[in-house]
């Protein structure tokens, strides 16, 4: 999506700035360069300073750092990135990124040979992986507000989270290829019924297992809880070939899958 | 950096397109939506179709997928992303991303308590982590050409790769904090001397060990070679707290560090 009015405003003034900069030449010095130093091997870059552009670059770098698991634990998105995250989540950026991850996962799923014992498994997380809570987060600052368990639970209990379409396509593809689908979520066991209804209404069917946090799992860090559950799957004879999740804590730890697929999520972080 | 003439051209026509689209209203349908389906919970996004913008989105998604380790092995960058990768690498995008990773690594380095035995280690990869081969890749299509060992070795043997400045800053910071720095590179032992000279000329000093591939390591996949070397470090009593590399094969495998930092690199992939 093009961020409409904001982008139009921005591009218009940006074009003006660039025209000025062309006549003003490259008066900016190298002193604020942070990349490799080239001593004029390359032509000097034309640097246009523009606060919103700079914030966009920083917020883009912050988002990519999150996707690459470079960030420490964080509770809310950076305040200066409020508009950036909103534009990303409601625009084409998020959609195209979801498509890319789904396509890569599907290519892997098609390439890997499956056994004949029905024990090849693909794990899916639920929130921001199969189901989207974007309507909730849109009403709560896209991650700018500190996470509120009670409010979020009220949303979950409505059972109206829409499907993430590229994940639904991947889900159906891996089922058709013969994988066993295992759903592994941080949601509580008490939300089993509403979660099942929500999943089915959104188009997800035929899972092999749906694993939610039971009373023993409460308070455990996600990466430990999910590693323990994957370890149990392996003990049950499953070969975990693929794992799709929007948090690194869905994917790392022990008993990790052959290939992991990190779906984009700049709105919240679960350790 | 602003991609100068290209961006100016692009923004100018883009602004025109947006003005047209404002009058033309949102005639584009929802049919090509790939994200979550919201059934009008949100206002319909204004979608402007523009080939270069679309390619930019796809190439951005491809780059982020690489940083998130979602891509399978690849030999060259996608042809449509040639201009995108060039703009990213020579522009502010790469510089800001490098800064972000270095800053996060430094924050972690400052936060973690060190022992008094001098056995807290930080591992750095060399190519595209401490030293930049961008001058070489600029002459070889920024990753569009298939990797040529002989040509690349000729470049390495010149010993003129510049420092990646944010990594040099991190390097000095972790040394000052009391970490032992271990350099672990895929370069061959026969390049030890030129590598040492290049590192020192670029400002890197006081490493504890410089580990290169010896004859036993040739032909091993990087992820195995580096895991084995990290395992040896652990046997020598080192605690590997930080690890900085531009390839996931620098960071994954066994004996992984407490925190890993993935530097950006959309130009090549080492399995």
UniProtKB/TrEMBL annotation, chains A, B:
One of its GO terms (molecular function) is acid phosphatase activity. Coiled coil: none annotated. Keywords: Glycoprotein, Signal, Storage protein. Residues 1-23 form the signal peptide. May function as somatic storage protein during early seedling development. PANTHER family: ACID PHOSPHATASE-LIKE PROTEIN. This is Acid phosphatase. It comes from Glycine max.
